[in-house]
Amino acid sequence: MRAHLGDQLVIESPATGATRRDGEIVGLHHEDGTPPYDVRWSDTNEVTLMFPGPDAHLRHVEHGQQPGTTQGASRPETAEPGSVSAAAAPTGSPNPGDIGRRVAAERRRSGLSLGETARRARMSPDYLAYLEERPADPSLGTLVRLADALGTTVAALRGGGIDLPPGQGQALLHPQLRDLGPQECRTLLSTHGVGRIALQASDGRPAVVPVNYEVVDDAIVFRTAPGSVPAAAVGKEVAFEVDHVDEAMSQGWSVLAVGPAHVVTEPDAVRGLTRRAHTTPWAGGEREMWVSIRPASLTGRRITPADQ
Questions:
Q1: What is the spatial distance between Cα 54 and Cα 294, in angstroms, rounded to a whole number?
Q2: Rounded CA gap, 115 and 5, in Å?
Q3: Across-strand partners of 260?
Q4: More confident site: 166 or 255
């Protein structure tokens, strides 16, 4: 018997073949996938060390499937001593599913290590690593524990609120709104992400548009295309805003930078910005015009419970 993380271990009645118990393999003790296994049982949600007997078999995860599809099962694999499975280990480069990407992003945003997150969620670090790196369809119980450990919601990990504006949760009972200092604002701006630029468009109307941005030498830079709405920022004083909302905790922060915008024309500087960019513009298309905003003022605010 050889298992992968995420496979299902099924214990059947020798007399009737009916399933007596089943669980998800969340920990391996041998690199080749041979027993014993750490199994999280579906009936109790507890993890125990399991040495499968002859009444047990595996249902393998189809490692290439996308989250939400029906989980395929291989032929039952009887756990007889010395048996060898024909199931192959996953090959190729990791291809995380949507849930795994969201879990990894929330973990990094919270500043938690993989080990600490696994401890808080009461699961194997190996299984959490597998979940972040491979397509998987974790159980509801697993998602509930992960959401609790990461301070978010199951719906957020599943992407259920992707078409809803943030901030629909209830306000804190005793909120505290405080101003942020320049250094904390710079820290929150970080090095890259998605922010919003407020400007006067070429037709004279005000506009606010999101852009992928980088922070390079204290300047906010982004790529766009000539003639686009963000390109109208060049030669003007503009406002640039980033924020983050924690729906589960009804907390959040925002940072506002105001300053003149200029187009970057020096060839070496353009090549350097392109080389250092963390992401390509999500909007796609040809966007090779770099715009730089040098903040003249940098302010921010944070909402927290009054006792923090």
A1: 69
A2: 16
A3: 237
A4: 255
Residue 88 tokens read as 């192959």
Question: Which residues does residue 258 pair with via DSSP β-bridges, in sequence order?
Answer: 239, 297
Cα gap 140→148, rounded to integer Å: 12
pTM of the shown model: 0.58
C-alpha–C-alpha distance, residues 155 and 235, integer Å: 43
Q: How many CA atoms lie within 13 A of 296 on its CB side?
A: 8
Q: Would you say 239 and 197 are in contact if contact means Cβ atoms under 8 Å apart? A: yes
pLDDT digits (tens, 9 = 90+) for 176-208: 999 999 999 999 998 789 999 999 998 889 999
**Interatomic CA distance for residues 165 and 255, integer angstroms:** 18
Sign (positive or negative) of CA dihedral 73, 79, 80, 82: positive
- Compute the half-sphere exposure of residue 264: CA atoms within 13 Å on the CB side of its CA: 22
Task: Give the DSSP letter of residue 89.
Answer: P
pLDDT in tens, 111-170: 899 999 999 998 888 889 988 988 877 888 888 889 889 888 787 888 876 777 777 767
Cite the DSSP H helix spans in the chain.
Answer: 98-109, 114-120, 125-133, 140-150, 154-158, 182-189, 267-276
Paired sense of beta strands 237-246 and 175-180, if any: unpaired
Q: What region does 23 belong to: left with phi over 0, alpha with psi -120 to 50, or beta?
A: beta
